[in-house]
Structures are given as structure tokens and as C-alpha cells.
Amino acid sequence: MNGAESLIRSLVGNGVDTCFANPGTSEMHFVSALDRVDGMRCILGLFEGVATGAADGYGRMRDRPAATLLHLGPGLANGLSNLHNASRANSPVVNIVGDHASYHRRYDAPLTSDIEGAARPFSAWVRTSPNANTVAADGAAAVAAAGTPPGRVATLILPADTAWCEVDESNNTTATRPTIVAPERPSEAAIDAAAGILRSGETTAIVLAGPATREHSLELAGKISAATGARLYAQTHSPRITRGAGRVPIGRIPYPIKQAIDLLRDVRNLILIGGKAPVGFFAYPGMPSELFPPGTRVHALARIDQDIPYALEALVDAVGAARAKSPLAPLDLPDRPTGAISPEKLGALIAATLPEDAIVVDESITTGRTFMAASETARPHDWILPTGGAIGFALPVAVGAAVACPERKVICLESDGSGMYMPQSLWTLAREGLNVLTLVFANRKYQILRAEMANVGASNIGPNASALLDLDRPTIDWVALAGSLGVSASRAETMDALSHQIDAGLSTAGPVLIEVVV
Amino acid sequence: MNGAESLIRSLVGNGVDTCFANPGTSEMHFVSALDRVDGMRCILGLFEGVATGAADGYGRMRDRPAATLLHLGPGLANGLSNLHNASRANSPVVNIVGDHASYHRRYDAPLTSDIEGAARPFSAWVRTSPNANTVAADGAAAVAAAGTPPGRVATLILPADTAWCEVDESNNTTATRPTIVAPERPSEAAIDAAAGILRSGETTAIVLAGPATREHSLELAGKISAATGARLYAQTHSPRITRGAGRVPIGRIPYPIKQAIDLLRDVRNLILIGGKAPVGFFAYPGMPSELFPPGTRVHALARIDQDIPYALEALVDAVGAARAKSPLAPLDLPDRPTGAISPEKLGALIAATLPEDAIVVDESITTGRTFMAASETARPHDWILPTGGAIGFALPVAVGAAVACPERKVICLESDGSGMYMPQSLWTLAREGLNVLTLVFANRKYQILRAEMANVGASNIGPNASALLDLDRPTIDWVALAGSLGVSASRAETMDALSHQIDAGLSTAGPVLIEVVV
């Protein structure tokens, strides 16, 4: 058995059964080994960002890692922006990068680069395996690192000779099964302090992040809110929120900084569960970085790496909310709007048509500002947002979410500007027949940047600025683009047409794309 | 005047007149300033790799830098693989990356990352400007760093407040014009040693890299070869070779390692001008890393950062070759092949149809192995290759080459696998009406990897390997893909059809794409 096979056996043995890959020459032994070990599904992305984004989406939905397989420094580089989002989502990802054979590195062949250096800004764990005997144990360590709560990007770099050399059988570590250490509990003092704040009668907001926006945690938070009057907020970009009918509805800190500051203007206490104190997504001249008023008491009840369900259970007990009734969203579907397309009508139509247990991957940006509020009483679903702000995340993450949950419909809400970062994802959707309905909201500009120019006080838009903000000249034909990569597509220019096309898309098992001209 | 405007004035004042950009919120003041300063052409890429690759192509053709404008760490990340190629090509690039306002970084907002850390593996020079007063001088320093021979990637990181704050006029550095230090000359001893080798009568190969593959240097090398019998080789992937009728033809060290070793088997001396001793692009089990026989004397006459034309002139004198006649390629165009498509016929057709002064950007990989040899006697042209091995370079580099040389026809020889890494380039070709004829050789597989599996001794191709190496299921429709992004396209399935379509493409001023089914 060579190192490559020992790696695949180690990954499979540690519960990794999916690999999103774009391999090259230095990874060919891993590719070959995939056919000698049962239990690994291999999915090709035509660009590395598809692979890393898919691993992010898979991790968000499964709470355990998929692997990637990338080709040296440039292959890793192409996957880094989606690893940034995965890092910020605390998604578990085993990011495997091939390198030149260890003895070949010193010759500085053209593809040589500092792979560890490139990986480090976007990985919580980085290791280069020194030889074939260490590969299996290092693979197991990478799975453990990725799966250590709250989830991390673990990058394992494998020189080609670690793959092709034979493993010394007396030293075989493919059966290594590291134990993941359970997250620590927040201290009694932290829980008591939170309870004291909630009993103070002062206006208090609880900011829920990471695992705190999943169904069970939200139910606990709902009890606390019902018992104490505390407001519940998700961060602007949560990795995944369980929501819709029967779930505890929570607010979301808005992206536009003035709206965010207004929302928190009267808050005297912030209790943080799993996240940091809310700050502006960007800095704006003359505006504060912190979104809450000066003098607000900020109490971190539980860090993202602590036991968040426990923290909420303990707080429920501490404030005597065990018998409080969580305010659950009713099922209340809006009528389907007709006529001309508007963002508000789109929100209502999405809410009306979301199927039970849908997974919504949302990069609808300016068009979609109202979509979450509109779908609060839709059928139960999960909502996924771009945690790290790296653009182009939705299509790749939709790939991974659909692979992770083949029985659920994925609704990918994409923008034309953002969608053009990783359009290669469409090909993987088609190849794997993934159950994804993509709506591309085509406003034919970087609308968010037109607004942001005004927000930062740079309001004159001359010919150069226009050239950098507008996406017409030429218009992108999303129907042809999707078709060229094997995805059935149509175009909607009215709500009525869109309504019909969504129905058709939802009743199709494979991928469908609708270009929504807004 | 704010920092952003001072930057643009500094760049324009230092001769940078083109900016390939994909900006975001943190760069909006730079975008705004572009309309307050004359002399900067702004070109939007829908993905950052388009911008960095275009800057590479521009730098290769102009020998002076264009600027980029990228959005924080993830935007930089998306541009890194093409910066790797640019670094390996020694292309001058001023790579500008926005960051959060300096006071905002400590809040660790979602888009925060270690930008310097991400830039360093792919940049020779990295600096973060601390405030608005330093921006102009730092911009000038970046231009100087990029333009210092042989050319470098210089990354300048600009926190948003360095852009929007006013410059203290008493401290205005926009007129800073750093002097670029001329490259040093190789020592007399190095020249004498090279001359001694050439006079020894032993089999000697001269490996020409960097500026040594441009017309004047090649003429000098041709004299040396004519006078001494030394063989001339370009590295496997040169940044730019001046060639065709009237130019000195040189061999190229082949990519396939066995062919490369065979080529150099009888060589006793290697003289390196501008490059390193030839090594395998990858390591292969049981094969050496060095492509030349053990015991070969390797003499580095001139490093890439030294004065290469001087080195060649001095060597011409030292070996008494001043009156030797360089062997120039004749103009000898093959007949246009007809019938079924084959790689050899494609090479002949390209040679027959290359227009005078064409710029060929070649990522044709397996299909194109014979294209360079076939075009040795074509009309005079430049040939550009992927220096760093990062895939997807050809379309973005073609964008930059066409912007740099609007009066010349760019022929982009692309593969279907490689072309799918940065297809967004097609949109920029269309928007700017660039004079680029792209041939996409569609073999519908990663053919190189099928060969490489055998080369590394991993020869069994099972279902998982097939899934990772084949690009059918679904077939990519390049005609529809190009059309969706505004580029006229057609498909050729015979040499006759391709011949007609190339004629039509060459007579069109704007971008045209032909999918060549091979």
C-alpha cells in the first residue's frame, strides 16, 4: 500500500466520504488510489473555488468535513476565497493540497511556491506530511482538526512522494482514529452574569452565532426571550439558520450600517453567544466601527468554540425560563405576486414557493435585502449566508449542500455580478444531477457598489467608475451560459413567468436556472 | 486631494496608464478618483484572475507595469494564481489591494484577513501604506519595484482610510519619481568562463531565459551559435519568445521528461543566460529532477536580474563572433491541411495563417505540443507561454496583451480544460472589443493528466479517476458559452471549416472564438 492509498483509507475510516477535487499531476497517485478504496465519492470542479466552496456547503449541512484535492500553490490559491468564507463559517473542511515530491522542491520548478504560507491566512490548521508513513496519521489529524468544534479549515499538504512511496507496514497508521475533544462549557460566572443582565430589566439583545442559530438552540433562546423580553438577533451573515414555520424567528443585524445602528440604538446590554460584538461589515467615514451605542455592556456568554447548546440550557435554567413558550413562526404563505418584477414581490414569491426542508443559499445581495424577512413564515427551511464576504460563494456552496442533502431541494439565490465569479459550478451541478434551483437576479450592475460609493462619500460616478460598476455592454446571457454548461435554463421578465418557471424548476429533480431580469 | 487621488496621480506620473480592476466597497474612493485624474484606462474583470492575468500579459508585451485594483484578501486570493505566473515570467505588475480602514481592522469584521501574508508567496515586494500622506510615495515605490529588472510583482495594500483621508499638502509626494537602478553586468570572469566552455569543442547548450528570448538577444545568441556550434534552447515555458521568419530559431526544452532528457543526453556543458538549470516540471518516480546528465558543467553566465543583452554582447566579442551570421528562419508557410482534424494539421494551419506581428498566447497543452515547431518559419510573431504552470492563464493574458498592443492580432490557443478556469475573460474581451482570436481545442478531457497518470506510474483509471479526468458528461458548449458573454463564436469539426473560420476571425477587429473539436 502506498501513501496515497493509506490517506484515502484513513479519510474513509474517519468518516470522510466525499472529495471535491481538481487534481493535477502531483495528485495522480491520490486519484488512482480512489479507485482502490471503497467509500469515497469524487466530484470534479472545473475550478478550485468550486471544490472549496462545495466543501464549505457540505460542512455547513453535515457538520462533518468533506475533503478537497487541489493542485499545488496555484490550485490552492484558486480555492482560497471560498476557504475564507468556510473559515468564517467555522465549516469543517479537510483541504488537501498536493506538492512537488519533497526532493524536487529545492530545484524551484515553475509550479513551486510557499504553499504553507499561502494556506495559513485561510486555515486554522496547516501541516505538510513528511513521508508516506505519516500520511495516514496526518490525514486522521486533519479530520480531527477540521471537526474540532466549532469546525475549522484544516489544510494538509502532501508532497507527491508521500503518495507514491510504499508505506512501511510495521508503521501503518491508517487505523488512527483521533478523539475530538468536546467543547468546554462556559463558566458558571459567565452564565450568572448573563442571567443578571437579563433580570435587570434593561434593554438587552442576544446575538446568536455559529451553532446558536440551529433549531434546538433557537428554541432555547426563544424561551429566554419569552421569559425576559430580550431581543434575539442573528449576525448579518450566519453560516446557517434554521427557520420558517415552527421555528423561533429571529432578527438579523442589517448590512446597511445606518439600519444596523438604528436597530441597536436603544440597546443597553449585548449578550454574545458564539460570536463577536457586532461591527460594521466595512468602515465608513464618520461612522463608528461598532454598531452598538457607546457604553453598551457587552457580555460574552460563550465563545464559538465553547458548548453553545449547554450555555443556552444553563441560561434557560438561570432565568427560570424552562417552562416559557418559545414564540414559533406560524405557517403563513403570501399570495403569489403578479405583474412587474420588484424585490419585494420576489421576496413574497420565494416565501410562497419554498418547499418543505429547502436549503436556501443566499447571495442575492441588494435584490434580496427583504427576502429573509419575507420568508419568516414560509415552510421550514435552512438559510445559508456568505459569512466571510468573499463573493461568488453561492453556486459552489449550493453544490456542496446538494451533495450533502440529496433528498432536499436547494434554492440558490444568486446575483449576476456574484454569479460570474464561479460559474463553473453550473457544470458540476449538471454532471452530478444536483437538486438545485438557481435564481440569478440580473440587474446588470454591481448595484451594491453604486450604493457603497455614496455611503463612503465618493458620490461622483464618471465614465471610469461606470465602467467598473456596470455589467451591461455586453449583457450576460445567463440562459445561454447555463445551457453551455449543461443546466436547463429560462428567463423571467414578469412575476407571472417567474412563478411558472419556479414551479417547473421545483418539480425537476436536477439543476435548473432561472435568469430573473430585475 | 485625498489619498486615492494622490495614488492615481502618482501612478500616472510614473507611467502607469492602465488598471485592470475588480473593486469593492473598500476601493470606492480609488474608483471615484479615477474620474478626477486624466490618463488612466480602467478595465473591469468579472473575476480577479482576469485582472491579474491581464496585468501579466500587459507587462510581458509592454515591459512596464499595469496596475490592478483588487478587493481585500479574498479578492487578492482570486488573483493569486495568475500572479504566480506573472512572478515566474518576471512580469512587472503593480498589484493594488484595498483593505479595511486601518482603525477597523482590530474589530475582525468578516472580510478581514492577513493580506500581506496571502500576498507574500506570490509577490517580490509587499507594502501596506500607513496613511494618506504615504500613498503617493508608496505607489511610486511600487511602480519602481515592479519595473526593476527583470520585472516583479509589487503588491501595495491600501487601507480604505488611506484613500479617503485628505493629503497634508505640505507633505505631498505625488511628484515622487523613483529611479530604477540599471541591472548589474555579469563579471568578466563569468564571461571568460563561458567563452572558454564554448571554445572547448565540447557539446554545449545555451539556455536562454527572460529577456534573452527577445529579438536582439536572440540575434546575438545566434552569432555565438554560428561561431561555436553551441545549441540554443529556450526553457519549456518562456514568458515571450520573438520568432518566425527573420528571427533566430531556437529549440525548446520539451515538457515530457523523457523527451527533455533525450534532448540533453549528449550535452557536456550548459551555459545559463537569465535562467536556472533545466529541471523537470514535475518529479516522476525513478526519474531524475535535473534534465541534464550527471557531471554536466553548469555555468551561470547571467542571472535573470543582470544585464542580459550586455552578457550576450560581451560573449559575442569574447568568442570572436561579431561577424558571424545568425541563422535566421526563412518565411516558409505550409499548405493548409484539409480533412479530419489532427494536432499536426492544426500546427500547420496555425503556421500558415498567423498574421504578421501576431501575439500568440499558448495554453494548448497536449493538443499543441507541435505548434511551436510548426510555426518556426511562419510570419514574424511573439509567442507567450504559461511560465508558472498555473492553469487558466491564456484568456486573461490575451486580454492584457491585446490592451497593450491594440494594433496587433492576438491569437489565443486555449484548451477546454484550461479555458474553464477563467472564462470570465471572454466578457472583458467583448466589452473592450479586443483584437483576439481564440481557438479552444476541445478534447473534452484533461488529456495531460491521463498521460501523467501513466508517467507517475499510477496507470489504473477506474470510475473515480475517470470522473476526475474526463470533461464530457456534460459536454461544454463553447460556442454558447462565448456567445453568452458577448463573443462571436463558431465550431469547427474539420480542417476545412476551421480554415474558413480562422480567415473570418482574422478579418474581424474584435474578439472571435472558435471551438475546435479534436
Overview features:
Rossmann fold; 3 domains; 17% strand; 20 helices; homodimer
Description of the structure:
Two copies of one chain form a homodimer. In chain A, helix 1 packs parallel to helix 6 and helix 8 packs across helix 11. The first copy, chain A, is 37% helix and 17% strand. The first copy, chain A, has three domains: 169 residues, Thiamin diphosphate (ThDP)-binding fold, Pyr/PP domains (Rossmann fold), CATH 3.40.50; 131 residues, Rossmann fold (3-Layer(aba) Sandwich), CATH 3.40.50; 175 residues, Thiamin diphosphate (ThDP)-binding fold, Pyr/PP domains (Rossmann fold). In chain A, the strands form three sheets. A seven-stranded mixed beta sheet of chain A has the order 9-14-13-15-16-18-17, with helices on both faces. In chain A, strands 2-1-3-4-6-5 form a six-stranded parallel beta sheet. In chain A, strand 5, helix 6 and strand 6 form a beta-alpha-beta unit. The radius of gyration of chain A is 24 Å and the shape is globular. The first copy, chain A, contains 20 helices and 18 strands. The first copy, chain A, is α/β, with parallel strands linked by helices and 518 residues long. At the A-B interface, helix 2, strand 2, helix 4, helix 5 and helix 7 of A face helix 2, strand 2, helix 4, helix 5 and helix 7 of B.
Quickly describe the structure.
The structure is a homodimer of 518-residue chains. Chain A is an alpha/beta fold and 518 residues long.
Give the topology, please.
The structure is a homodimer of 518-residue chains.
Chain A: H1 3-13, E1 18-21, H2 28-33, E2 41-44, H3 48-62, E3 66-71, H4 72-89, E4 93-99, H5 115-119, E5 125-128, H6 132-147, E6 153-159, H7 160-164, H8 188-199, E7 204-208, H9 215-228, E8 231-234, E9 241-243, E10 251-252, H10 257-263, E11 269-273, E12 297-302, H11 308-318, H12 343-353, E13 358-362, H13 371-374, E14 381-384, H14 394-404, E15 410-415, H15 416-419, H16 425-432, E16 436-442, H17 447-455, H18 463-469, H19 478-484, E17 488-492, H20 495-506, E18 512-517
Parallel strand pairs in A: 1-2, 1-3, 3-4, 4-6, 5-6, 7-8, 7-11, 8-10, 11-12, 13-14, 13-15, 15-16, 16-18, 17-18
Antiparallel strand pairs in A: 9-14
Helix pairs in contact in A: 1-6, 3-4, 3-14, 8-11, 9-11, 12-20, 14-16
